[in-house]
Design brief:
Structural class: mainly beta
Largest sheet: 4 strands, antiparallel
Helix content: 10-25%
Number of strands: 26
Order of helices and strands: HEEEEEEEEEEEEEEEEEEEEEEEEEE
Number of helices: 1
Strand order of the largest sheet: 1-26-25-24
Strand content: over 45%
Radius of gyration: 22 Å
Shape: globular
Distance between the termini: 60 Å
Length: about 300
């Protein structure tokens, strides 16, 4: 009798565990499909180069919403290409202007701020590629510029690989200080309003939000084996609705609300979709722009909700 009771309890326990596994599996699957059901990504622009010259390895994109222009940094080509938001090529400059492996860029009132390999400063170029100046740290402070962001006031935020922090310059190019001390890694950055978003892929949490004065606000996103974990997050952007878009080189695009709650993921690399995205931006119409590392192209999508 006792043995039969134990068998019955074991069977009930197995049934409960199996039900939980199914429920969790269905829940994770629903989360993965959530973005797809929330948005229809309609491709509107595809660019694989500047006229007949193909991209070789683009890494950075900046959309100037007011000017309706898109800037693409391609370190493998030593070039910066400028397009209208409809894909029309406008201008391109590169090594002939002293550009060396541009990695990322931001634009303010016709001035292009660029981080480059082997240069311990952010170089400022005119719209026609003429070097006009630089943003540099005081003597003795190591500086290896990476990703950049710019706020509405014209302050520029630069990831510094030499110290694993974020360096801040005011609109006049004066060094104001740093944000995010003590982090192990930094790969992505954006700023929206009075909030600064940093991607720290080797830290826990992997996405951290600061105020623009440097105070820590919140964090979310954890590495691991679970379906809700991040893989290799590399870039971040916030759309006009306040949703946080994380570009993950392994797990695709992960979408969070403004509080850091995951809304869903887009993982498929089907033809016509996207292929290992590495950078992201939005225009004023909330169109999504992606740089694809393996696809070596720029894609723009309309978000149909």
């Amino acid at each position: 009798m006792l043995t039969a009771l134990k068998v019955k309890r074991s069977a009930v326990l197995i049934t409960i565990v199996a039900s939980l596994i199914v429920s969790i599996s269905l829940g994770l699957r629903a989360a993965e499909e959530n973005v797809s059901s929330m948005f229809l990504l309609k491709p509107v622009v595809t660019l694989d180069g500047f006229f007949h010259e193909k991209f070789a390895g683009p890494t950075g994109i900046y959309v100037d919403g007011e000017a309706e222009e898109v800037y693409v940094a391609d370190p493998a080509k030593n070039s910066i290409s400028i397009f209208a938001t409809d894909g029309t090529p406008l201008f391109k400059f590169g090594k002939e202007k002293g550009l060396i492996a541009p990695y990322d860029l931001v634009v303010r009132k016709g001035l292009i701020y660029v981080s480059q390999a082997s240069k311990d400063y952010v170089e400022i170029f005119s719209y026609r590629g003429d070097s006009l100046g630089r943003l540099a740290l005081p003597d003795g402070i190591p500086f290896i510029p990476g990703r950049l962001a710019i706020d509405e006031k014209g302050n520029i935020y630069v990831l510094n690989s030499a110290a694993t922090n974020c360096v801040v310059f005011d609109r006049g190019g004066v060094f104001k200080g740093t944000i995010g001390e003590g982090l192990k890694s930094l790969s992505g950055i954006t700023v929206k309003g009075d909030r600064l978003y940093l991607i720290t892929p080797m830290d826990i949490p992997a996405i951290r939000i600061f105020d623009t004065s440097g105070g820590f606000v919140s964090g979310f996103g954890f590495k691991g084996e679970g379906a809700d974990a991040v893989g290799v997050p590399v870039s971040v952007e916030v759309d006009k609705e306040g949703r946080i878009w994380i570009v993950d080189a392994v797990k695709g695009i992960i979408l969070y609300n403004s509080e850091g709650t995951e809304l869903g993921r887009i993982r498929e690399y089907a033809p016509g979709r996207y292929f290992f995205p590495i950078d992201i931006d939005f225009d004023l119409a909330n169109r999504l722009y992606l740089i694809e590392k393996e696809g070596t192209r720029l894609r723009a999508f309309e978000l149909a909700e």
